[in-house]
Amino acid sequence: MVVAWLQFLACMAVIAIAGPSLTRSAHAIARLSGMSQGWAGLILLATATSLPELYTGISSVALANAPNIAMGDALGSCLFNLVMLVILDALSRGEPVWRRVDQGHILTAGFGVILIGFVGALVLVVREGFDFKIGHVSLYSPLLLLLYLIAMRAAFHYENRPRAVAKEPAAIVEGETLGRSIQQYVLAALVVAGAGAWLPFAGLDVAAAMGWQTSFVGTLFVAAATSIPELVVTIMALRLGSADMAIGNLLGSNLFAILVIAIDDLAYGHGSLFAAVSPAHAVTAFAGSIMAGILIVALLYRPGNRFFGVISWIGLALLAVYLLSAYTIYLHGH
Prior knowledge:
Elements: H1 2-33, H2 37-49, H3 51-62, H4 67-91, H5 105-125, E1 133-134, E2 137-138, H6 140-159, H7 178-210, H8 214-226, H9 228-239, H10 243-267, H11 273-276, H12 281-301, H13 313-332
Antiparallel strand pairs: 1-2
Helix pairs in contact: 1-2, 1-7, 1-9, 2-6, 2-10, 3-4, 3-7, 3-10, 4-8, 4-9, 4-10, 4-12, 4-13, 5-6, 5-10, 5-12, 6-10, 7-8, 8-13, 9-10, 12-13
């Protein structure tokens, strides 16, 4: 048991160390290449912080034969990303965070509701015989890929709509070049790849040592480990006064996590991934859709009241849904 937990914690530590470097280099690439901050946060930064989910998912299905860890990691990461909004809410002093961000995040959150909810429905309906495949690949995976591309195209057009805001010149950091930033990005990605590839094996060992089901371990523990870069970026962005970048990264990471599920299905050679996983993952997916819906309400309503001057009812609602879904998965995992 001790060895299993030490391996798992070692993977978490590596991701925690390499994650910030990956994020800083991705941010530098965006700044030096002239990308807009919103588009950079949604694409480059979200992709960078989601690499652990990608590597862990592929390793889970292709090497460890642990489809529940792959699905649990992707959907659990979506929940972790949304519950991080509670941290933004609590740490945001003065004006509430919901009043400080662009309402354009509603677009990304709306696509999140669609994609995450769709995966939850697939986990249930595929088990009832609605499983259409070409070879071992489910036909639903290309559809997920198409929806992801539509979401990115819509976000791109929204981000590039005409605005009356002048662009600020990029800050120049001594010794920082585009080539060096790309090298740092690739190096950090390789380190995260190694830790992410080993993570599902450590997760299987933890599940076996504790007598837990892999769906529970993947959704709560593996997802927590692979979500460390998002947590670091969220706190760093808030300290820099960029709540928009933080929320854009979290919502973009959720969309990328659904893309990871489609990639995992392609890499899973034993049949449809959706048919191989536990139906308990539908609970996680529907909870993620509800939490994304709560965020949409917050961005439209922009509440200003807080309980005890610390957290709003939006933050409490997000936390309640997360804890309820985690408890449900916990019961199923025992």
